[in-house]
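Dig into what follows:

_____
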Amino acid sequence: METTDKKVKEFDTVKTFREIKEKISKDIQGMTFEQLNAYLDKTKLTPKTP
């Protein structure tokens, strides 16, 4: 008989990434190229300065 110890995940990276991708997909659905560029400019991440 084998026993396996499974750790409980505190943060599920795959689930979170899928949720983010689904939100972006819904946000950009039906956008024109120009609207998509504006969306990307608006949501662009910027590095934090220390």
